[in-house]
Amino acid sequence: MSRETLNRWRLLLGASADEALAETGDYAQETFAYRELDEALGYLYDREYGEEQGYQGRSGGRGGGRGGSSLTVPGWLGRVRKLFPRETVEILEKQALDRYGLSELLADKKVLESLEPNINLLKNILQFKSRMKGEVVASAKEIVRRVVEDLRRKLESEVREQISGKRNRYADGRVRSLRSLNMKKTISRNLKNYDRDNRRFVVDRLYFDGRVQPYNKWHVVIAVDESGSMLDSVIYSAVMASIFYRLNALKTSLFVFDTEVVDFSGRLEDPVDVLMSVQLGGGTHIAKALRYGETLIENPGRTLFILVSDLEEGYPAQHMYRAAKDILDGGSRLLALTALNFEGHPVYDERAARTFADMGAEVAALTPDALAEWIGRIVN
Questions:
Q1: Chain segment 175-201, per-residue pLDDT in tens
Q2: Is the dihedral of CA 48, 51, 57, 63 positive or negative?
Q3: 326 Cβ neighbours under 8 A, 6+ residues apart
Q4: What does 285-296 look like in DSSP terms, one character per residue?
Q5: What's the whole-model pTM score?
Q6: Quick count: other Cβ atoms within 10 Å of Cβ 364?
Q7: Could you tell me whether strands 362-366 and 333-340 are parallel, antiparallel, or unpaired per DSSP bridges?
Q8: Distance from C-alpha of 208 to C-alpha of 23, rounded to nearest angstrom
Q9: What pLDDT, on a 0 to 100 scale, did the predictor assign at position 181?
Q10: Using CA atoms, how far apart are residues 16 and 57, in angstroms rounded to an integer?
Q11: How far is CA 113 from CA 125, 150, 296, 298, in A?
């Protein structure tokens, strides 16, 4: 076996493979060529081992080990960024937070600000924000804002296209997309540019249809389960609600719930404020949330009630079903979203989902753009 192959096996297996690899005769611990890589990986992955496995890790103050001086969290982060490509660093950061609970990454202002702003970091900030203090909180909030604004920009154009209203061929639209392109108007207005010599049709301007804003707004009521399993959906619900809030075609209400209800309808201009105020975890009282949402309904015939939940009710289920049926019988549309994200792997109570569907509610796991399409089909 080549030395390169042995070195790679050594990185994969960790320090516990030293003796076994040395027995081959072609390899000795002294010749291990990737010591710096090994220390960086060992700092994180030695956490898999304890004395019950017969090996004590090298890092984090968990024993003497065979390595050099112990790495600190900032030192480890700096080292992996020097040694590994960006994609690998993001994986290591994610596992450090999600798998090994290395919350020290979020406790130091400089370390936190050096992390890659992405949806995974956003989720970890929301989970650990109660442990943050002082300047770290301000830095965390700025990271949340950057990620949320990026999400909003990516989603807003499609949402506006789907929901803003029926096409108005007499008004030039602001949303430039193939869906709203007025081909007939574009051709007729650019006929003057026809190049007869080269037999070419030159278009110097595209014309798009505008949107007719309905006078009688639809009311979208969004109730979001803030249990830990719904974290992705909480994030996307807050972003989508802030987009809906900006549309003239909709009136938007948003509240989150566990065993209590917190209404954020008056704070939808700033989804960051909403997310930083959410307290994840706790019990789940869906019936109470449905009853609260019912009090917000003014015109049932033009109300879309969206329940974002895994439908795992912590109280007698019959009260949840009765509340849902009352909303439907009153004339509102009810959509039970078992997940609102781009992953598409919802975990939910299937029996409750079937019961909701049987009584006339729509039940689905949707991406944000699919939710906008669903709302657009109804309001238009």
A1: 556 656 777 777 777 777 777 777 777
A2: positive
A3: 294
A4: -HHHHHHHHHHH
A5: 0.67
A6: 16
A7: parallel
A8: 73
A9: 73
A10: 10
A11: 12, 17, 40, 45
